[in-house]
Amino acid sequence: MSVETTATAAASGANATERFRSDKSAAAEVSTERVNALASRVVKALVDTVMEEKVSYDEYNALKSWLIKVGEDGEWPLFLDVWIEHAVEEVANADREGSKGTIEGPYYVPGSPVLETPATLPMRDDEPGRPLLFQGRVTGVNGEPLAGASVEIWHADDLGFYSQFAPDVPEWNLRGTVIADSEGVYQVNTVQPAPYQIPTDGACGQLIASAGWHAWRPAHLHLKVSAPGYQLITTQLYFTADEHLSDDIASAVKPELVLEPKDKADGTGREVSYDFVLASAA
Ligand code: MBD
Ligand code: FE
Q1: From CA 272, how far away is CA 135, in angstroms rounded?
Q2: In the chain, % of residues over pLDDT 90
Q3: Which percentage of the chain shows pLDDT scores above 70?
Q4: What ligand 1 atom has the least distance to the C-alpha of 104?
Q5: Which ligand approaches the C-alpha of residue 153 most closely?
Q6: Ligand 1 atom, smallest distance to 85 CA
Q7: Region (Disordered): which ranges (predicted)?
Q8: CA 103 to ligand 1: nearest atom
Q9: 250 CB less than 6 Å from ligand 1?
């Protein structure tokens, strides 16, 4: 048994909560008018549900205990990113030109090791999984190459674990910031990530089991691609024939984001190209 199987929802949830607090919660300022408009609608949606579904006290108390447990398990980042973020992303990027984006999810960590192209992501000597060469070009919408563009990548390992959110995985495992060359070309060697199951032993897992849902996301690479004067893209790339492309629990798959890797001619794994097109900064 791998030591990684000792990962718990509460431990990864606590890390994701801490990560969010240190990176993003300070930026949150919402006007009284918007809080009034949005909170009123959310409360009304809940009240309408109670009235229309004739919710019982047992059901109301089940909800209360569950909400308390989401907090105790540190799973608010997970819950929100799995069930809500896809809509926020759709609204935020509806009019943006260039490559499609999708959700960031709860497991991004800024400041990963900076690597010149051609790069290899930090990994263990015996890193499990099929080698994957991921490469392509970063341009603007008029095809101009973006020299020195930054291609930040993070993904789960062959067992579905993210470094810094599972025990016993080296700090920056399978995380890196690859700097494209003067033509905007990037090349990065990594391993094929596994399909990902969100933690089943915490509050989110309890919801999934109680509702008869499944906990799977298709295998994916997470990316943030940026260059000075252009809008940063947060996205994910998936792999053809993955059984969860059509029922991602996080609703974050788009047809433009599915890769079709081919076997490498030298037999050392697979390779795939993907070009990023960035919109100019507003
Ligand atoms: C993930 O790896 C992920 O990408 C999302 C969106 C939610 C939970 C885990
Ligand atoms: Fe992920």
Answers
A1: 6
A2: 88
A3: 97
A4: 6
A5: 2
A6: 6
A7: 1-24
A8: 6
A9: yes
Which ligand sits nearest to residue 175's alpha carbon?
2
Average pLDDT over residues 20-45: 89
Atom 1 of ligand 1, nearest CA residue: 105
CA-nearest residue for atom 4, ligand 1, is 105
Does any ligand 1 atom lie closer than 6 A to the CB of residue 138? no
Q: Superfamily assignment of 92-278 in CATH?
A: Aromatic compound dioxygenase (2.60.130.10)
State the SS3 of the chain: CCHHHHCCHHHHHHHHHHHHHHHCHHHCCCCHHHHHHHHHHHHHHHHHHHHHHCCCHHHHHHHHHHHHHHHHCCCHHHHHHHHCHHHHHHHHCCCCCCCCCCCCCCCCCCCCCEEECCEECCCCCCCCCCEEEEEEEEEECCCCECCCCEEEEEECCCCCCCCCCCCCCCCCCCEEEEECCCCCEEEEEEECCCCEECCCCCHHHHHHHHHCCCCEECCCEEEEEECCCECCEEEEEEECCCCCCCCCCCCCCCHHHEECCEECCCCCCEEEECCEEECECC
Cα-to-centroid distance, 112 and ligand 1 (Å): 18
Pairing of strands 114-116, 175-179: parallel
pLDDT tens track for 189-237: 999 999 989 999 999 999 999 999 999 999 999 999 999 999 999 999 9
Instruction: Kindly report the protein residue whose alpha carbon is nearest to atom 5 of ligand 1.
Output: 105
Q: Six-digit token pair at 55?
A: 């919710």
Q: What's the token pair of residue 237?
A: 């790339």
Residue 264 to residue 278: CA distance in whole angstroms: 28
Q: Is the pTM of this model over 0.90?
A: yes
CB-ligand 1 contact for 217 (6 Å cutoff): yes
